[in-house]
Amino acid sequence: MATLAELAAQQTSLGEPVIDHLLRLTASWSLLSDLSFSDMLLMARVDEPNNRYDQHFVVLGQMRPNNRSTMINDDLVGTLQGPDAWPLVQLAFDSGTRIIGEVNVDAIDDVVPVWCVPVRFDGKIVAVMVRLQGPLRGPASLYEQAYLSIFERLCVMVADSTFPFREEGVAGPGLPRVGDGIILIDGDGRVEFATPNASNALHRMGVYGAAEGHTLPELGLRVRVVERSLEYALPAMEEIDRGHDVAILFHCVPLLEHGLVTGVVTMLRDVSDLRQLNRLVLNKEAAVREVHHRVKNNLQTISSLLRLQARRSDEEETRIALGEAERRVRSIAVVHEVLSREPGEEVSFDEIVRSLVLLVEDTVLALHPVEINVNGGLGTLSTDLATPLAVALAELLTNAVEHAFIDFGGANNDHVGVVTLNLYLEDGNAIAEIRDNGRGLGDDFSLEVPTSLGLSIVRDIIRAQLHGTIDMKSVGYAEGGGTFVKVSVPLSLRP
Q1: Which tens digits make up the pLDDT trace of 386-403?
Q2: How many domains does the chain have?
């Protein structure tokens, strides 16, 4: 289905500023549809060079009301309509005035009352907004009559090109709707009428007296958006709280006539339950963040104890083993540190990698200066993938820095040690490549029979826990020498 902009570009000669105006109108006209209990169509003249479709119209938009069944079951957007079927649309284009009459609609036996409202932009008629009115349920009630009165005033604004507003939309997802409650305020700021739902919202805010004839400050309410709409002729929205249990959203739409504000339509929505739910979610996030913070602190405490124990040991082998264990605990703590700032099911792995590189640089005392470079990234990963992968990468980086450059190049070696970590996503897998320009692997090296505890841990994490693959090999001197490690881990749900 083509968009309004695409249809206008293909079928009409309307310029970009006009199309933007029509897009703003269709973004806000659910308010018009609900106020008039009617289906709405937006028609523009078809531009055909050979005049084969002269005076035909293309339907650029269609809106159905939320408070009444639709009159048009078919989707007419993108269809071409002839002048014989819509003579009142043709008359509205030619006269530039609102045309009220009746029209025959497919699948409906009786004629349907119709309004054809010209849509102006920069003084020119660019489209016609068609209102197809369905039958009301008996005589119109007082507030239904008020709805229709507001709709008529907005139609005048459409014809004067003062509606829709340039600043923002007045209807759409997340905004109060007509059925949520309406208060009509006159040009002096006094309430003309309030719907039952609006009165209920006022009762929740402690206003129990009759609102008609009074200003909101006289009722004990200071609603700044009403004052802003009256003074600046701009739509505005504000949420007003009454204690911790009541929150009412006020959305004000000014009504204009000849450039002057003659009233304000204020739509109210009781968002108390939504705000309570938001507070519960925030409290839960705070609790999760606190849990990760405490886990991180506990891991750092364990890390400190291991470091102290290593210093007290007289045997070099014991100190090395405790130092490696302390580093592994710290790499897990890095993940929880990030989660303590951004709790959730996923975590920014690129931020974890930066911390891991600093961890390796701070904890490894290499005999040869080494530079660690990181290229690319993995973005956001699930926490159950990020934690073991972080431990594995920390182990591989440490292994490269510690062992790749030992006795490499002799005593007068001026070779600069470089370890490069490349991260990227490919075919649903997270890929990590670690390359150093060191001495390479021994001839008898086998990952299946690793010579160090660190490589055993990495192999088991990648294969058994993450269900991925790991490959280690030496690189020939023609390609720069050193060791190349490739880790591939699936991002999808693992068994």
Answers
A1: 888 888 888 888 888 877
A2: 4
